[in-house]
Specification:
The chain has 282 residues and is of the alpha/beta class. It has helices at residues 2-19, 61-70, 89-98, 120-129, 158-161, 174-184, 201-206, and strands at residues 28-34, 43-48, 74-77, 104-106, 133-134, 138-144, 147-153, 190-194, 211-214, 232-233, 237-238, 245-249, 252-256, 275-281. The longest helix is centred in the N-terminal third of the chain and has 18 residues, at 2-19. The chain is globular, with a radius of gyration of 20 Å.
Length: 282
């Protein structure tokens, strides 16, 4: 009995040593390579998702400087940069920090449509003011470093199912957008789809997009490296199949960013630090 009591402090110390690193919530950079066989040189895409107006250093400098160090050719934002519960100041600081530095594109997340969409016009006006192009069921063919790709973007499904009258885009429903973009992208170029929601992966693959870039899952919030990739994600539930990482379905690759939310998460992130995602297409 006495021996057991002596072991208790050591057991507590071991548990603390294992748990404390899991509470680290500083910014990380996660890199993926996608081998396309379609480009003569690499193209670098920065993916930002689920900032939720959180703070990453004074004036958002940690996030902004991390992006600058990576020198992307394209900056894509997969929704929920804003948060209906919070002041937009941090989001604006971030947008100002990247404005004019890279081609920037945005698709909406679910938070832009909450509060009956009343914040949506102001959020979208701020994007336009900062030179960020919103893709609302639209495609743009862009050329970077002399290489061309299709860039498609869809509104969050809440645009047409929860608050259809506040969308502000020429969208139709989520599935209508996907079908229309499939037809538009049949021009022979490599096609990237930007969408907030990863749980619709089978539809992205069905429509033949080469690469889908998503957020929303927040990495499953709690992870155990090597054992559990995520405990819970919105709209996927417990043990989400697409919590964060790189996934393959047929010829379609999907990369899910774990997002940048920090101080406003309902439970602390565990072994799931906020991340900036870098994707290199080769």
């Amino acid at each position: 009995m006495a021996r057991g009591k002596r072991l208790l402090p050591w057991g507590g110390a071991v548990l603390a040593a294992l748990a404390l690193p899991g509470l680290y919530n500083g910014l990380t950079v996660r890199r993926y390579t996608v081998r396309t066989g379609r480009f003569t040189g690499p193209l670098r895409i920065a993916l930002v998702s689920d900032l939720h107006c959180c703070r990453h250093g004074r004036g958002e400098r940690r996030l902004i400087e991390a992006i600058h160090r990576e020198q992307p050719d394209l900056l894509l934002m997969a929704g929920d940069i804003f948060d209906h519960r919070r002041d937009i100041r941090n989001a604006d600081l971030f947008l100002r920090g990247v404005a004019g530095k890279y081609p920037c594109y945005y698709v909406t997340g679910n938070h832009e449509y909450w509060h009956k969409g009343k914040v949506l016009p102001g959020d979208m006006a701020l994007l336009a003011m900062r030179g960020v192009k919103r893709l609302s069921g639209e495609m743009e063919t862009v050329t970077l470093r002399g290489q061309t790709l299709n860039l498609c973007g869809v509104d969050d499904p809440d645009a047409s199912t929860v608050h259809p009258f506040y969308n502000g885009g020429d969208s139709g429903s989520f599935l209508q957008q996907l079908a229309r973009l499939r037809e538009q992208s049949r021009n022979g170029h490599y096609t990237v789809l930007l969408s907030h929601r990863p749980e619709w992966f089978r539809f992205y693959a069905y429509h033949g997009f080469d690469l889908a870039l998503c957020g929303h899952a927040h990495g499953g919030q709690w992870r155990i490296p090597g054992l559990l990739n995520g405990l819970y994600a919105p709209d996927q539930g417990l043990f989400p199949p697409y919590a964060g990482g790189k996934y393959q379905r047929g010829s379609t690759t999907m990369i899910v960013g774990r997002g940048l939310a920090r101080e406003n998460t309902r439970v602390p992130r565990f072994y799931d630090p906020p991340e900036l995602v870098m994707v290199e297409l080769i």
